[in-house]
Every structure is written in C-alpha cells, then in structure tokens.
Design brief:
- Helices cover 52% and strands 14% of the residues.
- The chain is built from ten helices and ten strands.
- Helix 1 runs parallel beside helix 3 and helix 6 runs parallel beside helix 8.
- 52% of the residues are buried.
Length: 390
C-alpha cells in the first residue's frame, strides 16, 4: 500500500500504479455490475462496501498506528477515482470515511483516535461528517446546533442536513455551538455515535444523482455524550472543519475525475461501434475534436488533483499549510466543472441512446452535478481561491 510522500507532483510512483491496477480490477469485477441497479433502486451499495472492506480499501487513509493501511493522500485519491469511474455512489464510501474521520486524526486526543480509528480501519464502522444545517450551508458559521456542558458531559440539540451516508455510518463528526457569542470561534467538534440516545434520522433525500449514497438529516434531541468525545479544545471545531475541507475537497476532485474518465471511456468505445453514413462516427472530425477536448480537460484536472494531493500529504507530514487551501479549492472546482462538461458531452456523443437509462452516461451526468455543489459550491470555491491566491 502506498504510504510515502515521496512522489512527483504529477506522476504517481510504481506503487501507486500497482494500487490503481488493483482497485480498477476490483471495481470492475465487484462494483460495476451493481452500479445501475444501485442507482435505479436508490439503495446503499452493500456489495461495494463488502468488496472494499475485503480489499482493505474502504478507509486506506487511517494511519498504521491505529490499524489502518497508512496510505498517502494520492493513494486515497486513486482509490476514489477508480471507484467513481464505475460507480460514483460507491466512491463515497472511502471519500466520506476520510471526511468524517479526518477531524479526529487532525485534532483529536490520542484516546479518541485509538477508540474510533480502529473500528473504521477494520471495516466495522463508517464515519460521516455533520457540518451543514437547514439554515447554515455555505455560511457554516451560522449553525444553530448547540452543545451545552453538563458536568462531565455535553448535551447536544439541533438538526444537521445533507449528511452523506447518514443512517449507515456508525460515527459522526458533529459541529455544534458551545459559545454563541463568538460565532466561528464558539464552535466545537464532537464524535457522536449512531447508538447514542436521542440520535435519529430523517427520510432519505430524493436526489438527482448519487442515489446509492443515502443523504439524510440527523436529529440530535438531548444527546448526552461524554466530554472526552470533544475533538480538540472547545472553540476550535470550526477551524478543524475548515482544515479538514482543505484536504478532503481533493477527494471530491478525485470523484469528479473518476466520473469524467468513466464517461469518456464509454463514449470512446461507443463511437467506434456506432455507424452512420457508412462508417463509425468516431471517424468524423467533429466527433474526434469532442473526444480530444474531453481527454485534454480530464488530464488537466488529473494533474491539478494529483498536485493538490501531493501538497495535502506534505502538509499532513508537517510541511506547513502553504497554499493547500487554494490548491484544494482549485482542484475541486476545476475537476467538477470538467466532470459536468465531459459527461454532458458523453451523453451528446451517444445521441438518443445517451439520454436513456439503458446506457451509463446519463447516470454519470447526473452524478457529476453534485461534485459542483457539495463540500462547498464552486461559487464558494472561487471565493476561497480569491482569498488565498498563491
């Protein structure tokens, strides 16, 4: 398993290439066959979870000292990219496991890391991230969920919305207000367990895409948890949340990259088989130019994403934050815009067939849209980039 930060900014090491071969084989054999039915039935991709856990690829970012594979950021990107190439919903298993658990890795106590990373590494539990609320999306600092100290415990009350894999995950990183007078500096982070009394979930959202990944509200009704489940010091939760997103926006770039690559791969095969005017439509220059543009933009997105992953790994190793905030936002924004454009073009290349559910590109087009929205809309990404110009 890849575990070193010593790789070129753009070119993965031989070990990363071997990982890609392994995850691609697994994805095509164990995940791709269920992608269409998972989307059609809007059901969790249990087959993908089982395959990823069996291959120790469901949460490869967990450090070795906590029972994980200790994979670097680029290895995680490659896993997510290759799974998303066949099923975007399934790629949210490794992506959200990292998103949900990274606050604990970045800021949690040693006891907290040992308690929650081991089950995650084993595949006994999944981890979700609960930041957004009904009235606090892009303005996350405006959240209303509260955590009140009561002796050796905190009592949490509030509603979290748009929580990926809610109801399936066992653990949740929850941001809550501990001092309402301090806005973002009055927000703290906690680990909440699905089994905690007072935790419940809303009905799954009826979504355009990523239908196999449940998105639900999380209700916190007088949820009483031990004080030692706070992640970091009181009032540092929002800072931890933002540091987490610097790293994990790159995983959304990877997901977008995989979706786009899957669409291009399918379209390339189709235009060689589909004949009009006596020859394959892939022989026509207009079609060739479309494919060339799609491939060019995907390669540009891949370079930006891998460079951001390399930066993420250096920062995680203590190399300073530098321009990670800019690079993470840029990778996510660019790759997701490319994914939307490439999947739309793939539908166009298939013509009427592309518009039907008998072919996978319409699903890829629907799945691509969310990558422009979650973990910060692309409008917000541009604000972030403008504030952090290198």
């Amino acid at each position: 398993m890849a575990g070193s930060a010593d790789f070129d900014l753009y070119r993965p090491s031989e070990e990363h290439d071997m990982l890609r071969d392994a995850i691609r084989s697994l994805a095509e054999a164990k995940i791709a066959p269920y992608a269409a039915v998972v989307d059609e039935e809007s059901r969790f991709p249990q087959e993908a979870l089982e395959a990823l856990v069996a291959g120790d690829l469901h949460a490869i970012h967990v450090p070795e000292e906590y029972g994980g594979a200790g994979a670097d950021a680029l290895a995680t990107v490659i896993v997510i990219e290759e799974v998303a190439r066949v099923c975007a919903s399934s790629s949210l298993i490794p992506a959200v496991n990292k998103l949900g658990s990274l606050p604990v890795i970045l800021s949690g106590s040693e006891d907290l890391k040992k308690k929650y990373m081991a089950p995650l590494a084993k595949g006994d539990a999944m981890f979700s991230y609960a930041l957004s609320e009904p009235d606090a999306g892009s303005d996350a600092a405006g959240m209303k969920t509260k955590a009140v100290r009561d002796g050796d415990h905190y009592v949490l009350n509030g509603v979290k919305r748009w929580i990926t894999n809610a109801g399936v995950s066992e653990y949740y990183t929850v941001m809550a207000v501990t001092d309402p007078t301090k806005r973002s500096k009055g927000i703290s982070a906690f680990v909440v367990e699905k089994s905690d009394e007072g935790v419940s979930f809303g009905a799954p959202e009826k979504k355009l895409g990523i239908k196999g990944s449940p998105t639900r509200e999380v209700y916190l009704d007088n949820v009483r948890i031990p004080a030692d489940r706070m992640i970091g010091e009181e009032g540092t939760g929002f800072a931890t949340a933002m540091k987490t997103l610097d790293h994990t926006r790159i995983t959304i770039a990877a997901q977008a990259l995989g979706i786009a690559q899957g669409a291009l791969d399918y379209a390339k095969g189709y235009v060689q088989e589909r004949k009009q005017f006596g020859k394959p439509i892939g022989d026509f220059q207009g079609i060739q130019f479309m494919l060339a543009d799609m491939a060019m933009k995907i390669e540009a997105a891949r370079a930006l994403t891998y460079q951001a992953a390399a930066k993420s790994e250096r920062v995680a190793a203590g190399g300073g934050e530098g321009d990670l905030t800019f690079q993470g936002a840029a990778a996510k924004c660019f790759a997701s815009d490319v994914a939307m454009e490439v999947t739309t073009d793939a539908v166009q290349l298939l013509g009427g067939y592309g518009y039907t559910r008998d072919y996978p590109v319409e699903r890829m087009m629907r799945d691509a849209k969310i990558t422009q929205i979650y973990e910060g809309t692309n409008q917000v990404q541009r604000v972030v980039m403008a504030r952090n110009l290198p």
